[in-house]
């Protein structure tokens, strides 16, 4: 019995695996430190084997130099796509940072080595909640599906990476991140800003009250009171961000 190995298909599967593993290392929710690196590698290689019949169709074996170039290209493609997804979901973390800033929680910020987030309570809480919602709602499946469809836009057979289009995509992703952060935390930030304005007016009317000392417990109470409304809206926000992440990966809606 002879064992036949298609070298071209094996090589294409390896290149696809490099793109997928690089994506899982950077993109949430797979970049979470609770996932061991071995799990990410196995997940990437297993998915590469699953999509190999599609992505390696028409692939021809390369020489050593061309294979190394293709290897670096697929690594860059995976990292760029993963970073695009990271920017999309960084809006939730940025919204939590805005709430901490205007609510007076920034003095208690700390670094979370699991999620690699440096922030105060609401920054880390929003980040953990968004990761949990991604798995609970099945949003991670949409992200993986978009990653598989990325081989249609940047196929293995072509071997080229449209590097001239990366900068506009990153600029647009940064702008979308800041816009989404303001949309998420905007109502609560406005309430806290109006509380500061009210305390300032009270200080002008009655300086002896020293209203700014009262401002810390008032703003903390308002933040805790209205933060529940943000959490009620967080599932729809994560669902919308998942759609944006899939669109960023595939280049279409």
Automatic annotation (TrEMBL):
Major place of residence: membrane
Localization of this protein: Cell membrane
Membrane-protein topology: Multi-pass membrane protein
A matching Pfam family: Bac_export_1
UniProt keyword list: Cell membrane, Cell projection, Cilium, Flagellum, Membrane, Transmembrane, Transmembrane helix
Transmembrane domains' residue ranges: 12-31, 37-53, 65-89, 125-148, 168-195, 216-234
InterPro entries: T3SS_IM_R
UniProt record similarity statement: Belongs to the FliR/MopE/SpaR family.
Record-given protein name: Flagellar biosynthetic protein FliR
């Amino acid at each position: 019995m002879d064992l036949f190995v298609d070298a071209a298909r094996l090589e294409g599967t390896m290149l696809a695996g490099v793109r997928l593993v690089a994506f899982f290392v950077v993109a949430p929710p797979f970049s979470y430190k609770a996932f061991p690196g071995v799990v990410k590698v196995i997940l990437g290689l297993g998915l590469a084997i699953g999509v190999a019949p599609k992505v390696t169709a028409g692939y021809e074996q390369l020489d050593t130099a061309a294979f190394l170039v293709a290897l670096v290209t697929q690594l860059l493609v995976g990292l760029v796509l993963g970073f695009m997804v990271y920017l999309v979901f960084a809006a939730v973390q940025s919204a939590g940072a805005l709430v901490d800033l205007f609510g007076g929680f920034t003095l208690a910020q700390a670094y979370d080595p699991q999620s690699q987030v440096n922030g105060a309570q609401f920054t880390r809480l929003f980040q953990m909640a968004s990761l949990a919602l991604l798995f609970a709602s099945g949003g991670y499946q949409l992200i993986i599906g978009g990653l598989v469809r990325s081989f249609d836009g940047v196929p293995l057979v072509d071997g080229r990476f449209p590097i001239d289009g990366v900068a506009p995509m990153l600029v647009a992703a940064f702008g979308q991140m800041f816009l989404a952060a303001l949309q998420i935390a905007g109502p609560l930030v406005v309430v806290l800003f109006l509380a500061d304005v009210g305390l300032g007016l009270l200080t002008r009317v009655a300086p002896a009250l020293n209203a700014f000392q009262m401002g810390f417990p008032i703003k903390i109470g308002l933040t805790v009171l209205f933060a529940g409304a943000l959490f009620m809206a967080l599932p729809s926000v994560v669902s919308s961000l998942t759609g944006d992440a899939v669109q960023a990966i595939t280049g279409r809606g």
